Amino acid sequence: LFSRVAVHRSGDEGSFDEASLADVDENDPRSMAKWVRKMSKDMGEPLDADMEGELERMEAGELPGEGGADDAFGDDAAGVD
Questions:
Q1: Which letter does DSSP use for residue 46 in this model?
Q2: Overall pTM > 0.85
Q3: pLDDT at residue 57 above 70?
Q4: What is the tally of structural domains in the chain?
């Protein structure tokens, strides 16, 4: 007995493109936030409220992880080796 399975395969649009990282400065939170927003839009995936808040802080110049315990990037593992 076999079940049918449908797999959605996207074309070039919406697929992760490593070249899109070429202009991202990993030390610049504004640059990273811009890239995350672009990827979200390109993939058609909305950002949740926590991520929106984190991106707003990054756009203000804060690095991820500087926001305390409610950090949307999962900083709850800080200090774990």
A1: P
A2: no
A3: yes
A4: 1
